[in-house]
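Section 3.1 - Work completed
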Amino acid sequence: MKRYLFPIISVILGISLFALIWFLLVGKKEEAPLKPPSFPKGEISLPKEIGESGTNLLKINQKDSLGYFKKDNYLYFFDLSGKFYFYDLNSNQLFEETGVKFENLIGFKVSPNKEKLILIWQENNKKRFSLFDLKTKKVSLLPEVNEVNFSLFDSSKGVFFKEEKEKSSVIGEVDFSAQTLKPLYKIDAYDLLVYFPQKDLIVFLDRPSHFVESSVFFLDLKTQKVENLIEKQTFFAKPTGVMIKFFDDGSFLLAFPSLRKLQFFSKERKLVFDFDFFTFPEKCQKKENFLFCAVPLKLDEKTHLPDDWYQGKLNFPEVIYKINLENGLKEKIYQTEISDIIDLEVISPNKISFFDQVSASIYLLTY
């Protein structure tokens, strides 16, 4: 019996040693990864995503956002709770602006110099507007109107639209410093969008809808002359839902969703390009002689545009084009599978930022 004991013990020890080595090298459970070093107060680590070959896509926000804007080397945005953040493009760091939060915030508009914001919020199911100074963080309530917008030429002034009794409306100038309204023009219309692209020029149009025949009026404040830009063109069908976007130099895009048509005009209202693609103006940005646009690749002919898009019923694959406004040539720089891109900004010659409404996220794209 004893002569078999040593071999048995040897075998048991050998098996135990093998099991121990296997556990240490192979079978050991993965330990929890070490936590990254703490960030400065308010800074958030950023998830990184890779897009198409040759591109680099970086997501900026962790919480869903209402949108963003760029000023100098920073990207600013609000989350859905009304908290305010800024992302430093130099250091690639994200910070929360402490002490700034706006309840019931549903949107915002930015002044041309990016120093002031019109905050849009709800009170008792009614849309209200406040003015927010980015530098001082001061907030002041604006007079009650139906619509208000900044001017492109002077951030201290804006334009408003207010419905009156007996189905008439007033369009006028708002002085943001004095918080006063100055009526300038009375019109038998309602539910309008208003813009102040040049001194002594106000533009107003029907709120875009597939079910409303469109007019786009240019009002010369000196002469009180009104010109309907739609009437200057001939179309195979009456356009509905017409949309407009002005750029900082006074040029603008005119979109005809019902006709799937997109046009680019100079500051002098001369038609420069009638593009061979359609997209919504909010999906485009102009930088010098280039126009960047996110273009939907699939739009069902049965959709009611722009209503279905405004209501968030649509998302689609998109391609981002860089269009040379000197010769009309376009270059494809990125394509998505499903997205709804708006608010493109040019960061550098090979980098842009944009907001995707599907994911409520802000991205930096290097191409």
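Second construct:
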Amino acid sequence: MKNRSVECAWEEDPFSKGRRGLREQIACGEWRWQRPLPCSYAVIASRRYHAGLVVLLHSLFHHNAAEPDCGGLLVLWHPSLPETVLTEAQRAELACLAGSRRIEHVRVDDDRAARWLRVPTKCNCSEASASLLKLELFYMQRPRHAVVYLDADMLVMQPLNRIAMAVSYDALHDPDTSAAAPIAARRWFLHGSAPSGAAGTMSSAIQIGFMAFVQPAPAELSSELTRYCDSIIARNRVKSNLDQDVVRYALLALGLRHEPKRFNRSKPWRVRPRQLFLHRDWQTNYFPATREAIAQKRALHWAGHPKPWACPGRRREQTLFATNGKGRSQEFYALLRGLWQHACTRTVSGGCVSSGWLRAVCTPSCASKP
């Protein structure tokens, strides 16, 4: 008799309509023979967040040393954004951290980079525009290639291997993986996380500090991303959450087009974009609210919160504690900083990063004080 008590992280596809879901297929031994797709992790090069980037990659590869794992690392950059142009020494550090994985520094398309630079930002600075470089992943035409993206202000706490395998599962059961195929005919899902209790199909809950999907993405989605960027440029409208708002509204537009059923008829924007199902339980986004929540997270994400490598006493950090804490105490921030500090010290011990500058960031005098 086949063991049905196999523990795994996947849920049944809510749109399977009674068909056996991924959890059941693995438990029943029906999926083990299928070879995962080629897979790459992806990050944005950042000189300002380089400390966070190297600690992120060390924690990622530390927790994902077992097979199967993604065999590549994509580093997105463009010369028009000096923030993303790494020095030779910094590139060497990333190559060392990647180990045997193939690292590729992907220069973003010039036309798209120029468009994203014109998108209005709060600070009117290239640092904010650099966050839009992750959209390049939706335009890349790699056939049947899984990609797992992470922001630099994240820390991996548990293996992500299963996520890459689940993304592969989507493509293996996709009747047509070409970008030109109508999205209604495809089984293309965007994997991420939604807040606890939110419906997994609500793209309004999207947070794309972490996201995973199969390339190529549907051409309809990339076209909608371009259209929405052009729209906010023409209106000169500043979005509060630049990159994730662009993706969110693109998904909403496609959801309205292909799946007009609403959760609440009085709110037409709350739609159910069936083909763009957002996986809700990977526990890879959103800052934890309690100590208990930390243990459930596959990755910690300091989005909108004081960065753990920032020295105390900065005005921006003090403001965030006062206005963006959302009930979290400074002691709680210190606890999370301690986790990052430990990972930072482990990164220094790994020998890939020049220990002098990174050790200064890891020291308690800079990283552990609230």
